[in-house]
Specification:
This protein is elongated. The chain has two domains: 346 residues, Ribokinase (UDP-N-acetylmuramoyl-L-alanine:D-glutamate ligase, 3-Layer(aba) Sandwich), CATH 3.40.1190.20; 273 residues, TIM Barrel. It has a nine-stranded mixed β-sheet, sandwiched between helices. Strands 14-15-16-17-18-19-20-21 form an eight-stranded parallel beta barrel, surrounded by six helices. The protein has 21 helices and 21 strands. By secondary structure, it is α/β, with parallel strands linked by helices. Pfam families: DUF2090, PfkB.
């Protein structure tokens, strides 16, 4: 079968989560933007656990619709059936993070795209090609969306595809609760019960909270509601019971509900309860689709729920297989999961989409260019024009090279940065004050506040002039500031590229860089990328690689910097780096643009001459890197 494992049909939205924990919704000052909606959360959650998931829904044909599609695709969800609707908007949900019994939600829906799906959106062959179809309760509140869900169910039944029903009862969507009561979980309604009961006979798996089972069964007594559901459906029924986990009823409903199939939940501190049910469903389905025993499905579901309630947001909080294995393998599971630094790092590392290789044009130089224009007698304001042209030279190459990236500053590169941002290219932005030692940060001493204003796509780059043998005072200041920067990156969900260069008056021997990286790992700093000075000795790269693998096997990679070296010497370093698998590219600037840039500043070439020359030299450097294995490393320098 070549189709997806799981097709999810239903709600998708943009979730705006309050950043001020505990604040009333009306008092919130700022929000974090995520993709949400129960069916969408489950599609993301299962995809992160290795399930081939797909979505059937609609989004607005606008910026937020593109955000939803892009995010789903980045998480491995098939979006071929996510249809842009030119007449409707992607809906919003505003959420305040408060105590579990008082979690305000405001559904800014109106005439929303996701609930405008209709029968024509459902391809029976696509549904039939899957192993399971997930339908959720909310779309049943709209006639056209209900018809689409029923058509999907029929297609699944005809093909022998399993049908999973997530009861997902939100009274506000059925008109039995006010907008202000968006967080209300139960309001009795005969109409809702009737609709739910019409779906139950075709289901293989039914999952819901006590409130949801009560609405489906038409009784405020949970056991009676379960018996009512059982009277209509032979499906396996999963009753979610909050922090205690869930109870499964594969057959008749017992007198004592505790006699159902169950495993212990994981007692963790609840920070955000909203995504718990979707996380549980994702974990449970990942086992159920593999035909694991119900006990194992429950264990996976409970673990996913425990992890997600410790985090901000729903879909972005969903764990990956690596996180799940780590959590389940802990002999003593911490109650406050938010404090587990390795679990947090695993989440960042296994959910990001870092390129496998990067060939970066570095144009973040400041003091070096200031010296050049002062020597030429040129106004420093010309450096802004220079960097705009260098950015355009980069774009010329990047249009044909997916591994191209650019490193730039916002001092002289602010206009170039504005042109590049949003274009889809890989961008890293300098955060250090040029030539500062101990390192200082642009924007002032609070990097968290500075990074908050940066676009999310900008990878934070920090250059450090450091040596393992620096005096203690300087070393301690630099380490403290790097920890501060790393914490700021974590708080603002930013990636970090850390560059190390020898302190003035020192050089790196064969062990220096490896020792320095090891020290950073000791103090808890794990950047996504390292930028390392060139070295023609493969053994040096091997030692660096070994340190990184020991402390962070999820590191995106090492990049070779240029230090204005000539191509012949860089070729030697590239050849040496070729033996280390973690060396995944370079970040080189003046070796590429230095000579043509100087000629342009001196008035010896025009704008097109500069752009063409830099693009040609950048392309040549790319070819040099790509052919690095063909060049022998320095003789006698073996791993």
């Amino acid at each position: 079968m070549n189709g997806p494992d799981l097709v999810c049909i239903g709600r998708t939205s943009v979730d705006l989560y309050a950043e001020q924990d505990g604040s009333k919704l009306e008092d919130v000052q700022s929000f974090r933007k995520y993709v949400g909606g129960s069916a969408t959360n489950i599609a993301v959650g299962t995809a992160r656990l290795g399930v081939k998931s797909a979505m059937i829904t609609r989004v607005g044909d606008e910026q937020m619709g593109r955000f939803v599609r892009k995010t789903l695709a980045e998480n491995g969800v098939d979006v071929s059936r996510v249809r842009p609707d030119p007449e409707k908007l992607t809906p919003y949900v505003l959420l305040a993070v408060r105590a579990i019994e008082d979690f305000p939600r405001l559904f800014a829906y109106g005439d929303a795209a996701d609930l405008a799906i209709e029968e024509s959106d459902v391809d029976p062959d696509f549904v039939a090609s899957s192993r399971a179809l997930l339908v959720t309760g909310t779309p049943l509140s709209r006639p056209d969306a209900r018809a689409a869900s029923v058509k999907a169910i029929g297609s699944a039944r005809d093909a022998g595809t399993k049908v999973v029903f997530d009861l997902d009862y939100r009274p506000v969507f059925w008109g039995v609760a006010s907008h202000e009561q968006g967080g209300e979980m139960f309001v009795a309604s005969e109409r809702v019960t009737e609709v739910y009961r019409s779906v139950l006979p075709d289901c293989d798996l039914v999952v819901g909270t006590e409130e949801e089972v009560r609405i489906a069964g038409g009784s405020t007594d949970t056991r009676e509601a379960l018996r009512s559901v059982r009277g209509l459906s032979g499906a396996t029924i999963v009753l979610k019971v909050g922090a205690m986990g869930a109870i499964v009823f594969p057959g008749e409903i017992p007198e004592n509900l505790e006699d159902g199939v169950r495993v212990p939940g994981f007692p963790v501190e609840v920070f955000n309860s909203v995504g718990a049910g979707d996380a549980f469903m994702s974990g449970f389905l990942s086992g159920w689709l593999r035909e694991e025993p119900l006990e194992e499905c429950l264990r996976l579901g409970n673990a996913c729920g425990a992890i997600v309630v410790s985090r901000h947001g729903c879909s972005p909080a969903m764990p990956t297989t690596e996180e799940l294995e780590y959590f389940l393998g802990l002999e003593e599971k911490p109650r406050r999961l938010r404090d587990d630094a390795w679990l947090d790092h695993l989440h960042r590392a296994t959910t990001r989409n870092d390129p496998r290789e990067l060939r970066i044009l570095a144009v973040d130089h400041r003091w070096q260019l200031e010296e050049a224009v002062d020597e030429l007698g040129v106004d420093r304001g010309r450096l802004r024009e220079l960097k705009v042209l260098l950015g355009r030279a980069f774009r010329r190459v990047a249009e044909e090279d997916e591994a191209a990236g650019v490193l730039i500053d916002d001092v002289y590169g602010d206009e170039a940065l504005a042109e590049l941002t949003g274009s889809g290219v890989w961008i890293s932005r300098a955060v250090e004050v040029a030539k500062s030692r101990p390192v200082e940060f642009v924007g002032g001493p609070n990097p968290a506040a500075t990074l908050r204003a940066w676009p999310e796509e900008h990878v934070v780059k920090c250059n450090l002039y450091m040596h393992p043998d620096d005096d203690q005072e300087t070393r301690e200041i630099q380490e403290a500031r790097v920890i501060q920067l790393y914490d700021a990156c974590l708080a603002n969900d930013r990636r970090l590229l850390l560059e190390v260069q020898a302190s003035p008056g020192t050089t790196y021997d064969g062990e220096s860089a490896a020792r320095l990286l090891g020290r950073f790992y000791e103090i808890g700093v794990r950047p996504e990328w390292w930028k390392i000075p060139p070295n023609p000795d493969p053994a040096v790269w091997a030692r660096i690689g070994d340190v990184v693998r020991e402390h962070d096997p999820y590191c995106a990679g090492l990049l070779v910097l240029g230090q204005a070296m000539e191509e012949e010497r860089l070729a030697e370093s590239f050849a040496a780096a070729a033996s280390e698998p973690l060396c995944r590219g370079f970040a080189i600037g003046r070796s590429i643009y230095g000579e043509p840039g100087r000629r342009w500043l001196a008035g010896e070439t025009d704008d097109e001459g500069l752009v063409s020359s830099v693009a040609e030299r950048y392309g040549r450097m790319n070819a040099l890197w790509q052919n690095r294995n063909a060049r022998p490393a320095r003789e006698g320098a073996a791993r």
